[in-house]
């Protein structure tokens, strides 16, 4: 699927950066994040003749940041929205957290920001798609923990549950419209998120690369609303589907307690 203009949140590193790099040179880029120097370095590496790369630093965990992002992006008429920005915190759900790292902040960035951007930008994307005979795209970066509760990542996992359910629901609502929706669900991925979340990496885990996640996402959109990434992700989804939920939660809790 060739898109004319893509808006990518959390584009300064990780999966967001990888998606920006994986899109074809014919796609103009609207890159947003909080790290301006990294965004600028990415823009410099991707800019080419005929391709526009625009930057906007914004904290989408705030109403002001979201409003500024929407106001900035709308005139560029994006036809692909990639809701990638997100974070979590590994640890006891009742433990104290630093400002900006607490449960409220996680919900604002992981849940409210994608919904707000969808509601603000999707109507215009649909209108343009109907007029020009093309299809728009909405990608949401979820996680394998969207399929089961995850002790010690309780709020993060719940936010990814929300994204998966939200995408499946509105994909059905918009099934007759010229738009494709995708919740891509990677497992443990080599990003700065792991360090920020203070999350130990399981010794047995296969770590996915951001580029692999990006390629899977761009290949899957238009084919299905939910896409797992990697064999461990598919295995986790099977566990969640076929094993008793109580058993899965207990198993994941024991695993988390022994990570590192």
Strand order of the largest sheet: 3-2-1-4-5-6-7
CATH class: Alpha Beta
Radius of gyration: 18 Å
Written as H for each helix and E for each strand, in order along the chain, the element string is EHEHEHEHEHEHHEHH
Structure annotation, total helices? 9
The CATH topology is Rossmann fold
The end-to-end distance, rounded to whole angstroms, is 40 Å
CATH superfamily: NAD(P)-binding Rossmann-like Domain
Quick one: biggest sheet? 7 strands, parallel
GO molecular function, one term: oxidoreductase activity
Family: Belongs to the short-chain dehydrogenases/reductases (SDR) family.
Keywords: Oxidoreductase
Organism: Hypericibacter terrae
Report on the structure:
With about 260 residues, the chain is an alpha/beta fold. It has one domain: Rossmann fold. It contains 9 helices and 7 strands. The chain has a 7-stranded parallel sheet with strand order 3-2-1-4-5-6-7, sandwiched between helices. Helix 4 runs parallel beside helix 5. The N and C termini lie far apart (about 40 Å). The mean pLDDT is about 90. Keywords: Oxidoreductase. InterPro entries: KR_dom, NAD(P)-bd_dom_sf, Sc_DH/Rdtase_CS, SDR_fam.
